[in-house]
Every structure is written in C-alpha cells, then in structure tokens.
Write a structure and sequence with these properties.
Structural class: alpha+beta
Number of domains: 2
Radius of gyration: 19 Å
Bound molecules: pyridoxal-5'-phosphate
CATH topology of the largest domain: D-amino Acid Aminotransferase, Chain A, domain 2
Number of strands: 15
CATH superfamily of the largest domain: D-amino Acid Aminotransferase, subunit A, domain 2
Helix content: 25-40%
CATH class of the largest domain: Alpha Beta
Strand content: 25-35%
Oligomer: single chain
CATH architecture of the largest domain: Alpha-Beta Barrel
Shape: globular
Order of helices and strands: EEHEEHHEEHEHEEEEHEHEEEH
Number of helices: 8
C-alpha cells in the first residue's frame, strides 16, 4: 500500500506529494513542525502537541493554518488512509509560498503538510533493555530552542557527529559546560540518591511532550525530581542516564563519550519510568 501524505488540502500518494519551489520552508527554513505518536491507531498526547505547535507558530509570527478541530480531523484522516496502527506523524507548517525575500511576505498563506510512517514501539522497548550510547558536542544553536523550528542544521550536524562516533544520540553542551538537551531528545540523569534531574524548560530547550509525561510518571511513582541544568562531569558520575522523545520514549543511556554511565547497563529507574510510560501509551 502506498503511503499517503496531506499537502495543503489534498491527500496524495507520497511520490506525488510536493510543495512549491518557492515555499519559504524550502528557501529559509521558515516554518515549524511537530512529531506525534500513534499507538494502536490512536493519536497520542494530541492536545499538548497542538498547544506546542500553536506556541511555535506564535513565536515565529506564522498564521495558524487551520483551527484545532479541522486539523485533528485531517490528522485522523491521514492515520486512517495509511492504516497506521503504531507510528509517527510528521506535521509541518511553513510561512507559505512567495517570491524570495527575507522579510515576511504580505499575502502568503501558511503551507501545511503531513506525513506518517510506522514506528515499532515494541522494538523501542527491546532496545531499551540494552540501552544506547551518547556523544557530547557543543550546542551551537540559537536563543529560541523552545520553538520547534524546522531550521535544524546544528541538530543535524550534532547527530551526524554522534553517529560517526558510534553513538545513538548527541548530547549538546552549552558554553558553561552544562548539558542543554539531545539533538532530538531531552536528557536526564539520576543521582546516587535516586533523584531525577533534567534541565528546566525556561532554559532555552524544547519542552518535550515525552519529558512532560515522564515528569507526571515520576510524580505518580513518588520520585524526587529536580529541574535544573547539570554538567557533563555530573553526568559522568550519574547512577543512570536516559533520554526522552516521542520516537525513543524513555531510552537508557549506558555510555557517554566512551565512559560507562552507572553500571554500564540500563538503570532500574529508567526502566521503571519506561514501563509506566508504555502502559500509558497503550491505555490513554
Ligand atoms: C531538540 C529536541 N529536544 C527534545 C525533543 C523531544 O520532544 P518530544 O518528547 O516532544 O518528542 C525533540 C523532538 O523532536 C527535539 O527535537
């Protein structure tokens, strides 16, 4: 079955789906995006994803392409037409198509495109039993990382550097030596006392939807949480580390820059958080 995309009012086979050559997303990265999980045919955490999308659009002064209600219907239709059970929806809004000029065009209509693909959540849970490696690199991004902008070049370069170092994720480190987040994930550590630590979202990072759910799970489990920055050195001494994102859920990090984290295997707190997170994903 061919995959179906939605582009500006039309549902099309992926191979026929396209945007205008003068779309400002193509020429300026002038747009925002969301990545949303689908589990058992249901779109998960839709409201927080739409709320974040609205904040990103507002942050870049891009008009809203359609209201929550119609957009939800389009997203459900994409899921239905792709017969998606477990998967990932990619939604992008750009400022629209206009003759190339840096300043905002007066009359551009926002461009909305949506694609989806399968995602094996059981495979993610299996991978978590082994954990992943991480590699740190300098965070060279701009001052509005709270906006989920499609302008991802620093993230792309960081992820590539990590992959070439044999790691799954790049951990970004700011000029003070403090970890900001991953190239496409939020980063967490657990200290020797069992306290969960992750950077505050007021601190120029993306407010991850998975991060918010994991904070809820941590509260349900009665875990102590600190939302504050931590350094690479503090991370080296962590009892556990893990990363969170829509596609990786809560994934244990077992090594950082060639050094073992904790016992060098997935920690019990990360695995417990993942187990409860997966249950929520199944039930909500
Ligand atoms: C830079 C960055 N941080 C964190 C995340 C995790 O966000 P979420 O949990 O909403 O997928 C992402 C996801 O794309 C990201 O790109």
């Amino acid at each position: 079955m061919s995959r179906i995309a939605y582009v500006n009012g039309q549902y099309l086979p992926l191979s026929l789906a396209s945007v205008n050559i003068e779309d400002r997303g193509h020429q300026f990265s002038d747009g925002v995006y969301e990545g949303i999980a689908v589990r058992k045919g249901q779109i998960r955490d839709l409201q927080p994803h739409l709320d974040r999308l609205w904040r990103s659009l507002k942050g870049l002064m891009i008009d809203i392409p359609m209201a929550h209600g119609p957009l939800t219907m389009v997203l459900r239709e994409v899921v239905r037409r792709n017969r998606l059970r477990d998967g990932f929806i990619y939604l992008q809004v750009t400022r629209g198509t206009a003759r190339r000029d840096h300043a905002f065009p007066l009359d551009a209509v926002p461009s909305l495109s949506i694609t989806c693909r399968r995602l094996d959540f059981d495979g993610v849970a299996k991978r978590a039993e082994v954990g992943v490696l991480a590699h740190s690199t300098t965070d060279i991004r701009w001052g509005r990382c709270d906006i989920k902008s499609i302008s991802l070049l620093p993230n792309v370069l960081a992820k590539q550097e990590a992959r070439e170092a044999g790691a799954f994720e790049a951990i970004l480190v700011d000029s003070d030596g403090l970890i900001t987040e991953g190239s496409s994930t939020n980063i967490w550590m657990v200290d020797d006392a069992g306290t969960l630590i992750t950077r505050d979202t007021i601190d120029n990072i993306l407010p991850g939807i998975t991060r918010a759910v994991i904070l809820e799970v941590a509260a349900e489990l009665g875990l102590k949480v600190e939302t504050r920055a931590f350094s690479l050195d503090e991370a080296y001494g962590a009892a556990e580390m893990f990363l969170t994102s829509t596609t990786s859920c809560a994934m244990p990090i077992v090594g950082l820059n060639g050094k073992k984290i904790g016992a060098g295997k997935p920690g019990p707190i990360a695995l417990k958080l993942l187990a409860v997170y997966m249950k929520k994903l199944d039930q909500d």
